[in-house]
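Notebook, p. 212. Picked up where the previous page left off. The plan for this session was modest: take the two constructs that came back from the sequencing core last week, fold each one, and keep the raw output in the notebook itself so nobody has to go hunting through shared drives later. Recording the first one now, exactly as returned: residue sequence, then the structure token string.
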Amino acid sequence: MIEVLLRPLLEYGYEVTILPKYQQHQIEQQMMKAGRAITGLPWNGMGVAVRGELGWRTMEERSEVAKMKYFQHLRTLPQTRLIKRIFDIRMDDANKQWNAQRVKRSWCHVMRKIMDKYGIAEEWKKEKDERNNVTVNRWWNGNGEEKGVKEKVEKKQEEEWKKEVKEKTKGQYYMKCKKEWGEEEYLNEEGDRKGRVWKARMRASAAPLAAILKSEHGRGKKSSRCMVCGEINEDQKHMLLVCDGYTQERETMMAEIAAVVDPVEWKRLQTSDDLDAWLLSSKEVDTIVKHFLNQAWTIRNFHIPKEP
């Protein structure tokens, strides 16, 4: 629904429009609301995690891609087309301004900055040559023998996303769970629905566990003690692997995992310090972990003191 209804409305005319930052931010906010509704991440969950789980680029990045494709479309139009002639004239003017170091704000100069950002500055030219005189699709995706510009662009976008994640306090744990860029398969309808939401929140450190809440609200204002077993430092690893309050549910989960995972690999994983992150990232045990998380959070919520 988001891809079919909302995004086309928000991105209409993105190829030629140059939106101010505040408008881009407003559009990004609308997409982020939709992304949080899909993933179940709360309002204070990391925005980069929302985009990471869904495999969404920022609206600015999508606008840049649309502009680059449109640039290639204009470049390869026949000279008989009026828009092609206008494009050539504007590119000539932009080149003169650039050489004279008297650059004026225009679509052509915006394209130069975008292409320079993605390391394809050589593409900023109106002339057609043997390599770029192809369809937009072939120029973007390549033809098998020769790579298109898509690879460089997406590599740069992924680098920027990872940099943004690493700058977040909760980013380190998220990167342990997020193995590769793209939409996560666990967001499908397979398995426990509530467990899916809890899995997203656990991966992004957006679950209301005591240790996470303490890190958010500062030292001395919150306790990191587990409300179920009383142990200190209730975090993702504690809930998944340690807490006595979920022993029966955990034993069932581990038995089911042992039945589907290679015995040698499972033995290695059980001694790993990152077993909790593996449980939250493995596609192989996705439905098993979702079911455990739903049970565990049901038990935990029962222990939350009720307000009088």
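Okay, moving on. Second construct, recorded in the same format:
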Amino acid sequence: MIFCVVLEANGQRLVVSDRHTAIICNDGNVYAWGGNSNGQLGDGTTSHRNYPVRALGLPRVAQLAVTDYATFAVTDDGLVYFWGTASDNQLGIPSWPQFQHRPIQLPTVSNVKQVAPGESHVAYLLRDGNVVVSGQNAFGVYGNSSEVTIDTGVVYCDVASVVQIASARASCLAILQGGAAMGWGWNANNLIDSSASLSILKPEPILDVSDVVQLNVSFSSENAGAARALSAHGELIVWGKNYKGQLGVSNTPVVKIPTTIPLPESCVAVASGSSHTLALMNDGTVWAWGDNNLGQLGKSGMVNSEVPTRVLGLSSVTEIAAGGYSSFAITRDGKLFGWGSNVFNQINADTADLFQSPVEVQLPCTITTVAITEPKPHTDALFPNPASEYISLDLSALCWSQPIEMIVYARNGLEVHRVKHTGTTLCRTDVGSLPDGLYHVVVAAKGVTKNYTFVKY
């Protein structure tokens, strides 16, 4: 039983920076706490908060992302709000003041599915599968074969059919429909490919695998170029910077070739801080490795580890998040736990600067999770179900010849989505734009059909 799969790389509903934490509650409101020197909590002040405060004036929010001094929110209707600081014109709005102490809507984008900020740029995944970027074009992060910066507005990348994005300091990664992974921008620590080139000016394939369901990469200075990819079969593939063992590969400062690391269970979600990694396993346990200087691995002692170690005292976990030197987990019963650095009270109001094991974080709202049943690899069931962003089918279990056609029908019998699939064993399609409800799916290949139902939430 898997309860929830975290899809977004730099944030979904629980996001963490080196200084603050933010979460979307069940009612769609955003609460944040910790450092607030630049207004990144969105409460209209720059006062440090050791307890959660509500970000002001937001409509219902679907997705969050953070940097150390800023917070971004995507609303249910695809608008983007920002608060905090964007001192390098990351937003592509040079006329705006440097600081925003409460959420303000960006006029440059709409119909957005996900936002992924980097150090001096912001990438936006649109609902039609295109990607646009604002801010500085260092190392070709626009992905349009140019290094020229456009001061105002956004620029389209040369990539389409994208279902998820992630930003590093000056790089972008993307998952395409079907599970292929692409990358462009700064090739620090061989984040994009194994060449000596530092600038990758247009999207190019990253991995040989074609069933990626989550990409995770940090843009912190210590972790620039450390990437993790989660496959549909629960394998974790890593590459890039590994100076503190954050990729789980022993005695290898830079992992130039994507490498699958051994884990105790099938992995269902991954998160990263400045120099450490968290992995949520199929059995609801959390494992961690890398830097442990502030207790962010959640284990006995403060010693770093290149080997995954189980976080103490946690079970039935449904979601994970990490940022800076802190780690977080949500359990099945809707409780939030944090451990690691508490220097800015980004965990709780306690005067302790760090926690070596998880402590419960009190929230003024509910964050219960939706139970999701996801099959083990090589079963012929549609997964995840219920689904919020995508549905997948393991074609190897059906033993059908390709091409495959997947057709989605609403309850009234009207066709609402259709996709043709060739070339890989994982048929995956985006359903994030569909209204909530029950859907019927027909999968067909050369006269053979199979029927499914799933719940979109």
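Notes on construct two before I forget. The chain has two domains: 14-361, 382-456.
Flagging for discussion at group meeting.
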